[in-house]
Design goal:
heterotetramer, A alpha/beta, B alpha/beta, C mainly alpha, D mainly alpha, C: mainly alpha, 6 helices, 0% strand, D: mainly alpha, extended
């Protein structure tokens, strides 16, 4: 049976829009890999440094933003210091803005509690460079202030002064973090990636090369449960469920019609 | 290839250069272990990686030399490759063009290099029948290389006059801008065959779905594991990861490349044996093998 | 209404119009998007890379070593002049060569040896057996020196089954990601733009 | 010279970057840091070449009044307004540059991406048919993961999310590991061939 693609398109639009308007309130359960990220931040002492890297493009913002907000809220509520930058150009302005907004929620001060260092292309070189000297890779922050002058970065030399790296990614950048920062400098790495990339990183989870994994909007929703601050992730979960069911029904319909047409031909 | 003597000489020069650099840099204070380590010539913690490296180099080299000597090595057929031949034939019969895309990869990606090698063979076949080969590009460097490869292939096939550089063109460095352009080409020119070989990202599904809607035969191959799942669902044949690399060796028939593929096969056997041995030891609570790994 | 939200909403709708079919609104948005993204990239690249990592050490700190990458970078522009375009290959050779050199030990350590270690599981656990079987059979599938027939065909076949499990799981997970993106856009249209939801 | 020089450079830097991994000596680290800087800088220039190429092609279409040149003009306008605003007024909070990014680029790009939600649904409908044993496995695995990753899966049966997680964590993970190791071996052998100058497609065949 051939359905015009546009009918499928309309079905999908409806199945996402309706649950957004009329909330159902399906329950959500926290998975182990998300809890592991939460724990690896939870166990840090006040004042330790977390490096948050915005390794994504503007297109995946709907998934990255809820995850970034949840993780940053956790960091700031724990009084951790946050050093941040972007390894993909489009993450730059986005990262700067998300970081500033969340920091303001918690009254954190720029330069003392958090910094944003801007963008570096050629991520291999940047990640490796951080293992030797942060000031060399980032002589200045995003605003052009020397990293030797900012109170927070003044104290940081390389990975030895960074307790955890969180890579927010929509591509294979975490692989570079693992291949270079983890393997070469024993840096602890947690990742928050779009759902599409999540399966890619399960092997690293079981080999303990990453300390945890937050996967997409669902992961964000789970993280929001853990820090007890419902946000964008939780709001989208109903729509997610309904859309999945509609797609599965379409697949079932496709198969039923396939087998029926096969029988008719016989 | 460079002569071995020359190679050692260059390496020596390079080392000398860096030593000179070193002598003019200010001395660092030597305080702790890290500083002490920085006086040494070898980092003992990396011994296991060195062992792995030596194993890889020895095996791959051995088979490269072996291949060079023997001239011809056996490589099994790869399903997607046979399909490429048929697909070219089909386009010729129908008098329709063939669309080629190397995806978003830059020239330093292994998949892009493999794609260029395959492009050479495809172009040679296409030249015999004078079937148009359209190749929109995402990266200007890849485009330049592709033009040279195709031109050379047409010459080798004895039809340099059929080569049209305007068919291999640069589109844009924006992912979705590129997709939109390729989609436009598909809808307007209706190619009989689409070849997607290289590094792909989210655009894979849009390309494959549009290609499907115009009824083209589609053969894909990529090293991006995620996109493989879309190609598998939406294309007729898919070269999975290493198959793409091997395919380029299979087509070029370069004994040195084939040799290195053999070398990889032996490494795979070694990996399987080691993993199973490690599993057996782990069953008896021995960490003898696992301890050796990083 | 906020002009920013109005603009984004209109452009969002222009792009969604592609689902019906290709049309001038979509083409307008598409070209505008490409242009703007290239412009954005140019500004960010110059502000945050060319200036601090090349010009700052070269002109402010007087570190003459940086002349080398400066010149090599400049070589890339010689691509536009066919007669001397070959010079740009030197720069390309450096990136590709050095990249290849860095990647070999990194791949051996993280992508091969660490993965092998993680797969050495106990044969007494079901999960361990599954992991080792799946790993070994997929590796056999990628074996090119021998035809997948006879005794060798069976494990290769099992390997394809595990590959299919992976492809299916990835597809399923991806569906999730793509729907999330749509949720994000609809949250914007229904919330920030139309104020139907909060 | 034309052919030899790039191969020599490639070999020199490739071999150095390979061996320095094992040598913690200060001089080597210094040299290695420098090479990393160089790679970064040259890389930016290759991207700038792409931008220059883009401007060249679009202006050619506009001045030549090629079909649909109006669209190329829009692209150029977008590009130059970003560049002029970015350099004249800065990129800080509240700058017009950032406004353009947030209100034009971000929404368009994420909408483009969200089109995939529709395509993925139509591909699933068309592609997931239980024709062969392999296709059936593909279909089942996709279905279980799709259900298991959303709250509704748990309402159907409490073991659905666990089953989905098990698939992701064990068979699927191990198969991907197999693909990864294969690609890794391919990368190593290609990289070795590049360093030795056997593989030189990137230079273009001459």
């Amino acid at each position: 049976m051939k359905i015009d693609r546009r009918i499928i398109f309309v079905l999908i639009a409806i199945s996402v829009a309706i649950p957004l308007i009329f909330k159902i309130g399906l329950p959500n359960k926290v998975t182990k890999e998300v809890k592991m990220v939460y724990d690896s931040i939870e166990e840090l002492e006040q004042g330790e440094v977390v490096l948050v890297s915005f390794d994504h493009e503007a297109s995946s913002l709907p998934e990255i933003k809820p995850m970034a907000e949840a993780v940053l809220r956790h960091c700031f509520s724990k009084n951790l210091k946050v050093v941040s930058f972007a390894l993909l150009a489009e993450g730059t302005a986005i990262g700067d803005e998300i970081l500033r907004n969340v920091a303001n929620e918690y009254d954190r001060k720029y330069g003392r509690d958090y910094v944003f260092l801007g963008f570096r292309p050629q991520y291999t070189a940047a990640i490796l460079g951080l293992g030797e000297d942060l000031h060399r890779v980032f002589p200045e922050d995003y605003k052009g202030i020397s990293t030797f002058e900012l109170p927070l970065t003044k104290e940081i030399k390389n990975y030895e002064d960074i307790s955890l790296v969180v890579s927010l990614a929509d591509g294979d950048l975490p692989t570079y973090w693992i291949n270079y920062a983890e393997a070469r400098y024993d840096q602890r790495i947690a990742i928050a990636v779009t759902a599409v990339m999540a399966t890619t990183y399960y092997p690293y989870l079981s080999s303990k090369q990453i300390t945890g994994l937050v996967g997409g909007l669902k992961g964000a929703a789970e993280y929001e449960i853990l820090i007890d601050k419902p946000g964008m992730g939780s709001k989208g979960m109903d729509a997610q469920s309904v859309a999945h069911v509609v797609i599965l029904l379409l697949v079932v319909l496709g198969n039923v019609s396939y087998f029926l047409s096969g029988k008719l031909r016989k | 290839m460079l002569k071995p003597k020359k190679r050692i000489f260059i390496l020596f020069l390079l080392l000398l250069f860096f030593f000179l650099l070193n002598s003019i840099t200010p001395a660092f204070a030597q305080k702790n272990e890290v500083e002490e380590l920085k006086q040494r010539w070898f980092d003992p913690e990396k011994a296991n990686v060195l062992a792995g490296l030596v194993t890889c180099i020895v095996l791959i080299f051995f088979f490269i030399i072996y291949g060079k000597k023997k001239g011809k090595l056996f490589i099994r057929e790869i399903a997607g490759l046979q399909a490429i031949d048929d697909a070219i034939g089909r386009a010729t019969e129908m008098g329709k063009p063939i669309l080629y895309s190397a995806g978003l990869g830059k020239m330093d990606r292994v998949a892009t290099m493999a794609s260029m090698n395959i492009l050479g063979t495809v172009a040679e076949k296409v030249a015999e029948y004078n079937t148009p080969l359209i190749f929109p590009n995402y990266d200007p460097v890849v485009m330049a290389v592709a033009q040279e490869v195709v031109k050379e292939s047409f010459t080798r096939a004895g039809h340099p006059e059929f080569y049209n550089p305007d068919n291999i063109f640069f589109v844009t460095q924006s992912q979705f801008g590129y997709v939109a352009a390729v989609d436009g080409i598909m809808v307007r020119q209706k190619p009989a065959t689409n070849l997607f070989l290289g590094t792909f990202e989210a655009e894979s599904l849009i390309l494959a779905e549009t290609g499907n809607s115009i009824g083209a035969i589609q053969i894909a191959g990529t090293d991006s594991t995620i996109q493989l799942s879309f190609f598998i669902v939406a294309c007729d044949y898919t070269l999975i990861g290493e198959e793409l690399f091997a395919a380029s060796g299979y087509l070029t028939k370069d004994p040195m490349v084939l040799g290195s593929i053999k070398g990889q096969d032996f490494l795979k056997i070694l990996i399987i044996i080691l993993v199973l041995a490690g599993g057996i030891l782990a069953t008896f609570n021995s960490e003898f093998l696992t301890k050796l790994f990083p | 209404m906020d002009i920013g939200i109005l603009t984004s909403a209109l452009l969002t709708l222009f792009i969604f119009s592609f689902l019906y079919k290709d049309n001038p609104f979509y083409k307008f948005a598409e070209h505008l998007l490409v242009g703007i993204s290239v412009g954005y990239f140019l500004v960010i690249a110059i502000n945050t890379t060319v200036l601090p990592t090349l010009f700052l050490p070269l002109f402010k700190e007087g570190n003459l070593l940086y002349i080398i990458p400066g010149i090599l970078g400049f070589f890339m522009f010689l691509r536009f002049f066919p007669k001397i375009s070959w010079v740009s290959r030197i720069s390309l050779a450096l990136i590709i060569g050095a990249g290849a050199g860095v990647s070999i030990p990194a791949v051996i350590e993280a992508q091969i040896m660490a993965q092998m270690k993680a797969s050495m599981l106990k044969f007494t656990s079901f999960d361990g057996i599954v992991v080792m079987t799946a790993l070994c059979t997929t590796l056999i599938y990628f074996f090119f020196s021998k035809k997948h027939t006879g005794w060798f065909g069976a494990p290769a076949k099992v390997g394809t089954w595990f590959l299919m499990v992976f492809f299916g799981a990835t597809f399923g997970y991806t569906v999730m990601s793509r729907i999330s993106l749509l949720i994000g856009r609809l949250q914007f249209l229904l919330g920030d733009f139309l104020h139907i939801i909060d | 010279m034309r052919r030899q020089l790039p191969i020599i450079v490639c070999f020199g830097f490739g071999a150095f970057m390979l061996i320095q991994f094992f040598i913690p000596k200060r001089s080597f680290i210094f040299a290695y840091e420098n090479v990393l800087d160089w790679m970064q800088i040259i890389y930016v220039f290759t991207l700038l070449v792409g931008v220059a190429n883009y401007i060249k092609i679009n202006s050619k279409k506009v001045t030549g009044k090629a079909k649909g040149w109006g669209y190329n003009l829009i692209a150029l306008l977008g590009l130059f307004s970003m560049v002029i605003l970015g350099f004249a007024k800065g990129t800080d909070q509240g700058s017009p540059f950032l406004w353009m990014f947030n209100n034009l680029q971000v929404p368009m790009q994420s909408t483009m991406f969200s089109l995939l939600a529709f395509f993925v649904a139509s591909a699933a409908y068309r592609g997931f048919r239980a024709r062969t044993k392999e296709a059936t496995i593909l279909l089942l695995s996709a279905g279980i993961v799709m259900l298991g990753r959303v709250p509704i899966g748990e309402m159907i049966h409490s073991s659905v999310p666990d089953l989905a997680n098990w698939i992701l964590n064990f068979p699927s993970m191990a198969a991907r590991r197999g693909i990864l190791i294969g690609i890794g071996l391919g990368t190593i052998s290609t990289s070795l061939r590049i360093i030795l100058g056997i593989e030189r497609t990137y230079l273009g065949r001459e």
